[in-house]
Design goal:
Oligomer: single chain
CATH superfamily of one domain: HAD superfamily/HAD-like
CATH architecture of one domain: 3-Layer(aba) Sandwich
Largest sheet: 6 strands, parallel
Distance between the termini: 29 Å
Radius of gyration: 16 Å
Shape: globular
Structural class: alpha/beta
Helix content: 25-40%
Length: 191
């Protein structure tokens, strides 16, 4: 079985922008590319899981989401790294586009995207990690039975005193360099 680092996208990999879908508005968070390389070097698959309610709200299409992910792939190739695969949820129960306006099993904190990754890539969740910038990402990891759930400060404002995360780091790179690479996280010192 494979082990994976599941990454939220907006606020974790790239600078948070509401309803991001335009390539010219996409900017990597400093160090995110290097962190992705580190995860691969340590033998982990890197999988993005992202809620994209903008589809359900009619702000952009699924094709726009896919196009942005291709753009991210092209940018990562310039640095000789990659995302193994992307999963996104286009649904929202209060959407304005009928076919996407529903309660689904893929919208975080539900676990449908992770379950699909397990099926597609033979992932062992007991050896995997989820990293995100919101408590909903942490809840998703806990709901799925992922071994470690990591919260980063690089996106939304977070309440560190009331998180269920196993550890909190400034950003993806600080986790990759300190908590991940040097195993401080595993001894519980990362929080």
């Amino acid at each position: 079985m494979n082990k994976a680092v599941f990454l939220d996208r907006d606020g974790t990999v790239n600078i948070e922008k509401n309803y991001l879908f335009k390539e010219d508005e996409f900017v990597f968070i400093n160090g995110a590319v290097e962190a992705i390389k580190i995860f691969h070097d340590m033998g982990y698959k890197v999988i993005v899981i992202t809620n994209q309610a903008g589809v359900a709200r009619g702000y952009y299409s699924e094709n726009d989401v896919i196009k942005l992910h291709h753009y991210i792939d092209d940018e990562l190739k310039k640095y000789h790294t990659y995302i193994d695969t992307y999963y996104y949820c286009p649904h929202h129960p209060e959407g304005t586009i009928a076919e996407y306006s529903l309660t689904c099993q893929c919208r975080k904190p539900k676990t449908g995207m992770i379950e699909q990754a397990v099926a597609d890539l033979n992932i062992n969740l007991k050896e995997s990690i989820i990293v995100g910038d919101k408590e909903i990402d942490i809840q998703t990891g806990k709901n799925a039975g992922i071994k470690y759930s990591i919260l980063v400060r690089s996106g939304h404002l977070i309440n560190e005193s009331d998180t269920e995360a196993d550890a909190v780091y400034d950003d993806l790179l600080s986790f990759a360099q300190v908590g991940f690479r040097d195993t401080i996280l595993w001894s519980g010192e990362g929080k």
